[in-house]
Amino acid sequence: MLCIVALLSNNIDALQLCYEMGKGTAYTDATQRSFLIKTMIRAVDMNILLIAGILLIIVVSKINKGLVFVWQNITLFRWIGYLLGIHALVSSAINYVEKQASETFEGNPFDYQGVIAAIFVLMVAEIFAIGLRMKEEQDLTV
């Protein structure tokens, strides 16, 4: 199961270690333990992105049905933003641990793209909320 998660996450080092574990020539117990921990954290991270993707599909399907300014879309957008923020934190933690363990890791371990995406989605949610409030006020005045 863990090898499948490693394969899906495109982690070449994890696949190499998985192969060596299957042959019985893996490095050490500490390496196997860190492999299991990193793979489990990556699995959690992948599930976070999977849930965010499913929520995005739900929002798009509601918008296609003509349900644009409804509170459920705003709630879904906010959840997507929160999940992307959690993904950015988990991804940054993984990168930081890998930077500490690797001598050749270059760059900044912080996931700026994930944070920017989360902020953007949360801004879209607030824009939708303002639009919905304006729509409700307009419906009350007519």
TrEMBL record:
Top-level taxonomic group: Bacteria
Transmembrane segments: 46-64, 76-94, 114-132
Species whose genome carries this gene: Parabacteroides johnsonii DSM 18315
Name of the protein in question: DUF2975 domain-containing protein
The entry's keywords: Membrane, Transmembrane, Transmembrane helix
